[in-house]
C-alpha cells in the first residue's frame, strides 16, 4: 500500500488495507469457500449463446430492473426453498457483497447501528465503515451457536437499524434454527431504532450465502418473508451454485425493502453480460448444483476424520457445520500450521478466533492432498 499523505483520503480510512484473502498460485486452494467444480460444457454453451444474443445490444444500457433475472431467481427459490415469491420481491447485484453494501447504504448511515453475532463474516464491519454505520457484535456461545437471550437483549437495548445473522455462519459453519431466527424477528418487531422516527423497527437480514449446503429437510428463512415486512434474506450464486466468478448475489424480501435498495443502487449496476451469464446458469440449475450433495458428504466425512485426529495429545475440535467448509482447532500456533500446509501446496484460511482454522471442500483429490499434508504437519508438531 502506498498512499501519499497529501491525498485527501477520508481520515477514518487512513491506515486501512483492502480486504481479501491472498490469491496465491498453489496446487490446492481451499481458502475462499468456492465450489471446486467448473461449469459443464452444456452450461458453457448456454453462456456463449446468451452472451452472443446480448452482444449486439451492448451500445445500450442494460435493463436496470433486470426483470428476466428476477423472474428466473424467483423460479429457482420456488424449487430450492419451496417459497412463493414475486419477482418484485427479489433484487440482484454483483455478488451478495454488493447487495449487503446496498442494505447498509439504505438502512444504515450516521447515527445508526448494525448488530451482528461474533465470530462472523469479516466484511460486515467494512460495509459499516464505508457507510458510516456503527458496528457492534454480541458474542456467540462457546460452540458458536447463537446466544438468543443475549441477542434479544442487545436488539432491544442497542436499537440497531440492521440486525445481521449469517446462517450457516462464516467462518464457523454454524446454522441458525428457524426458532432462533423467529425469536430475533420477534425482538426486531418490538424494538425501536436509534436515529429513526418513532415506530420504526430494525431490519433483520439473514445472510444465507451457504444455505444450499444445509442438511436436507431444513427450511430457508425465505419461507418467513410473507409474514415479516422487516426480514430480508441474502443469497449468492457464488457457493453452491459454483459461479463465484460470475459475481451474482441476490436478496429476497417484501417490496418495501427492495424499493429501498432501488433508491441507493447505481444506475445499471448489473451489466447485460452479467445478467445473461446468470440466466445461462439458471437454465441449468440441476447441473450447476449437481455436486452439492457430494460436497455435503465430503464435509461430513472430513468432520468425522478430524474427530479421530489428535494434536499434541489433544483431540481436534470441529465446529458443527451446515456449510461447504469446516472450522477446526484449537492450535497453539495456527500460523505455523497454516504456513506448513502452504509449504506443501495447500492453501486454507486463518480466520476467526485465535487457534482455529477454516478449510473449504475441494474435489476428492484435493481433500486427499489436504489430509495427507495435514497429517504430515501435525506429526511434525508432536
Ligand atoms: N456472505 C458470506 C457469509 C460470505 O462468506 C460471502 C463470501 N465469502 C459473501 C457473503 C459474499 O459472497 P459473494 O459476494 O460472492 O456473493
Automatic annotation (TrEMBL):
Pathway membership = Amino-acid biosynthesis; L-histidine biosynthesis; L-histidine from 5-phospho-alpha-D-ribose 1-diphosphate: step 7/9
> Which CDD domains does the record associate with it?
AAT_like (cd00609)
Known catalytic reactions: L-histidinol phosphate + 2-oxoglutarate = 3-(imidazol-4-yl)-2-oxopropyl phosphate + L-glutamate
Which domain of life does this protein belong to?
Answer: Bacteria
Record flagged with keyword Endoplasmic reticulum: no
Q: Which InterPro entries match?
A: Aminotrans_II_pyridoxalP_BS, Aminotransferase_I/II_large, HisP_aminotrans, PyrdxlP-dep_Trfase, PyrdxlP-dep_Trfase_major, PyrdxlP-dep_Trfase_small
GO BP annotations of the record are: L-histidine biosynthetic process
| Assembly and oligomerization | Homodimer.
Could you identify this protein by its name?
A: Histidinol-phosphate aminotransferase
Gene behind this chain? hisC
